[in-house]
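Write out this protein's structure.
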Amino acid sequence: MAIKESGEMYLEAIYVLSQKSDEVRAIDVGDYLGYSKPSVSRALGLLTDNGYISRNEDSFISLTETGKKHAKSIYERHTLLTELFTKLGVDIETATEDACRIEHYISDTTFNAIKEHMLKCSRSKDNPE
């Protein structure tokens, strides 16, 4: 099932929070995103129903393998696009906000081309001829 932008935002938030703590709760996700409890509850229910997250008996949230794969992809897009924009001279706040918008809509083809270009630039910087 294709996941919408809002679902991707939740997955990315859970991924980031899980890098900081093994115990991610719905309230943590809501605080991170600035969303209300009812909104978080509904979204987490949908993510659970679609196999992206699971919750244990203590209500801690974890990403399933499918959820982790998708979340890592979104997070990579976010960080790489933010890096690109800052290298172009955009301030970090604007770069982060723009990357957050673009990460959900950019095609795999375009993102991979940007990624490859940045790798080439990095390699040529490290190995000047």
